[in-house]
Amino acid sequence: MDNAAIARLLAETADLLEIDGGDSFRIRSYRRAAESAEQSTVDLASIANDTAQLLEIPGIGKGMAAHLQSIVATGSMPLRDELLAKYGASILDLLKLPGMGPKTVALLWDAAKIASIDQLAEAIDAGKLTGLPRMGAKQIEKLHKGIDDYRRSVGRFRLDVAEDSASRLSRYLLQFVGIQNVSPAGSLRRGRETVGDLDLLVTGPACEPGNTAAAVKHVAAYPEIHDIIAKGENKVSFHLGNGLQVDVRLLPSESYGAALQYFTGSKAHNVALRQRALKMGYTLSEWALARLDDGSTVAAKTEKDIYKALHMDWMPPEMRENLGEIEAAAHHKLPKLIEASDLRGDVHMHTTATDGRNSIHEMAEAGIERGYQYIAITDHSKNMAMTNGLDEKRALEHIRRIREVDKRMEGRIRVFTGIEVDILADGKLDLDDEVLTQMEIVIASIHTRFEMTRDDMTARVIRAMENPYTRILGHPTGRLLLRREPFSLDMSAVLRKAAELGVAVEQNAAPERLDLCDRDLRLAKEMGCKVIISTDSHDTRHLSKIEYGVRQLRRAWLGPRDVLNTRTAKQFLAALRPRP
Ligand code: DGT
Ligand code: CA
Ligand code: CA
Ligand code: ZN
């Protein structure tokens, strides 16, 4: 760890302390130490074990020396960890907005629990800042603009947001007669949970070289453009009103496959693929796979042609991260990935009994519409008071109603009884066993007390899974993408325990959650963990969001057999942990 990194950690700690309303003397001591670390000519990491030498540095006393040693040894220090656990790392992003200091951040936290730029944007849109001290209309307007600028420069966007923007833009582009085909590339095509910018490839008669002026004009006239960054003969880059950057490329159809391959990436995949091409005497570019000796084109028109010329099978974009897919494709050993159409049921959803917007019956009809054989109704338990969570008595009534609807469906769809029962702070479940024993699907989830230490949180989750009624661990990380960090958890310990107990872990497909990242999912598969995927729908329209979760399963190379709810209703129930 270099001095600059140490200085940054110390300065962050000072910022967090100030947000926390800490003692000003203490805050200053961290700032001074940060400056000293920044300016010191000795490498602090190399002298960290020598306390006497540390104390010679101006601004470093005994206490600070111990903090430095902890930073060098562990990459952090207890106070920083504690404050990050309380506020989340995203709160520090707020300081990057113009005119925003720790005092204002503290004010926003106290008044509205705002801890990230996205939360601030939401609060502004909802008019929640009006009336707060130091938040006049002018200041709010300035913040609003600052957020737009920030997002334009560094922000990432949720997959669903990027996809909506891409499909609206595609529809517009296709209105132009000379544009025949629009396809997303980049991280959107690879299904990453967040997207940095949109890469759209466009082909058609109006996109052929030397003839693009009219098409470029059409692209640049898109009404949702906020500002144009660059405009050339075959490329237009711009920002949308929401801050998302878009690169639209107009391509000759003869090199469409090469461009699609190149701009889909990932960078790591492309680098490895180019090396393979070189070894075979070819060069690979966005224009073509060509021979090194005479430059003649080997393949360019379709991605399949290119991979085939490299003696590989074509692979789904989700796999292209250079994590073994190149070798697998070369040995014709690519696995079959799961698809949304493999799923036979959705087993986590809410109704008007708690915080959902539709009735049991409406959810069942929506399940039928999607072609499902089964759904599970899993409303909240009483600990979630703000959702009108079910206590024991109401839960039993609810089961009766679910069974009634199930019967009324006359086999058109199975409606499982279920509950999303809260995991309390000590790892106990929020409802009595007598109630849980009536439920076909018991999902145990954490909704409160996110701020525990990693050890405590891991013990809490494991204790909840040890309850014999727990069949599924719901949204296992609690993260809200770009808004709330996952809670601190030893994921491999949890997955190991889940595999041992036979508890299934949920990939929550809600695009703001996507709890298990591709790495977690790979780990789950390696450990022999049962995996289910569900939408956690609060509305019949949410059932279609399953696709966002499926993309993550595919990124982790999961096939239909790796996911329990690809099975029939009967097989699905039998595959879950047996009920006591
Ligand atoms: P993002 O936008 O941050 O979510 O991620 P990507 O993967 O969409 O990255 P982006 O938009 O910078 O570039 C799109 C693809 O274009 C990328 O996946 C691979 C290709 N590409 C872009 N720049 C380079 C480069 O400098 N070298 C190589 N090999 N490929 C590049
Ligand atoms: Ca991109
Ligand atoms: Ca790009
Ligand atoms: Zn939940």
Verbal overview:
- It is a single chain.
- This protein starts with a helix and ends in a 5-residue tail after the last helix.
- The model has no long low-confidence stretch (mean pLDDT about 95).
- The protein is built from 24 helices and 17 strands.
- The protein has a seven-stranded parallel beta sheet with strand order 11-12-13-14-15-16-17. A five-stranded mixed beta sheet has the order 2-4-7-6-5, sandwiched between helices. A three-stranded antiparallel beta sheet has the order 8-9-10.
- It has five domains: about 1-85, DNA polymerase beta, N-terminal domain-like (DNA polymerase, domain 1, Orthogonal Bundle); about 95-155, DNA polymerase, domain 1; about 155-250, Beta Polymerase, domain 2 (2-Layer Sandwich), CATH 3.30.460.10; about 255-330, Beta Polymerase, domain 3 (2-Layer Sandwich); about 340-575, TIM Barrel.
- About 45% of the residues lie in helices and about 15% in strands.
- By secondary structure, it is α/β, with parallel strands linked by helices.
- One calcium ion binds near residues 186, 197, 199 and 247.
Which helices and strands appear, and what pairs or packs with what?
Elements: H1 3-19, H2 24-39, H3 44-47, H4 51-55, H5 62-74, H6 78-87, H7 102-112, H8 117-125, H9 137-154, E1 157-158, H10 159-174, E2 181-184, H11 186-189, E3 194-195, E4 197-203, H12 213-220, E5 225-231, E6 235-240, E7 245-251, H13 256-264, H14 267-279, E8 282-284, E9 289-291, E10 297-299, H15 303-309, H16 325-330, E11 345-346, H17 360-369, E12 374-380, H18 392-408, E13 414-422, H19 433-436, E14 441-445, H20 454-466, E15 472-473, H21 491-501, E16 504-508, H22 518-526, E17 531-534, H23 546-555, H24 569-575
Parallel strand pairs: 4-7, 11-12, 12-13, 13-14, 14-15, 15-16, 16-17
Antiparallel strand pairs: 1-3, 2-4, 5-6, 6-7, 8-9, 9-10
The protein binds 2'-deoxyguanosine-5'-triphosphate, calcium ion (CA) (2 copies) and zinc ion (ZN).
